[in-house]
Design brief:
By secondary structure, this protein is an alpha+beta fold. 44% of the residues lie in helices and 24% in strands. Helix 1 crosses helix 2. The longest helix is centred in the N-terminal third of the chain and has 15 residues. It starts with a helix and ends with a helix.
Length: 108
């Protein structure tokens, strides 16, 4: 599953299926996905719909950085997000453990 597909369809469909996840996250998060197939996306879980936008929009509560290959593995459950974070493959700035755990419910 390509990163663009994850942001264009997979994450929005997960949020539509479980709108309580957006309410629980209730923050703007920027994703800086590096490498081939990467890019920058914004998750704005403060809105009622249209949560994902291409590029960096708004003031983020957190910025997540990860390679495209690792991000795809995390979302498709081929890599454990906690292990990726502990090994430095998944970076959070600033590290907000509460928000990271809420995002894990959406990504994993």
């Amino acid at each position: 599953m390509a990163v663009k597909e994850i942001f264009d369809s997979e994450i929005p469909s997960r949020l539509k299926a479980k709108p309580e996840l957006a309410k629980d996250i209730n923050a703007v998060v920027h994703f800086n996905i590096t490498g081939d197939g990467g890019g920058t996306w914004t998750l704005d879980a403060t809105k009622a719909s249209e949560w994902i936008a291409s590029g960096a929009a708004g003031e983020p509560k957190m910025v997540i950085t990860c390679t495209a290959a690792d991000f795809e593995k995390i979302v498709t459950k081929q890599m454990n997000a906690q292990m990726a974070a502990m090994s430095g493959k998944l970076k959070f700035k600033p590290m907000d453990m509460g928000l990271a755990m809420k995002l894990a419910k959406l990504m994993g």
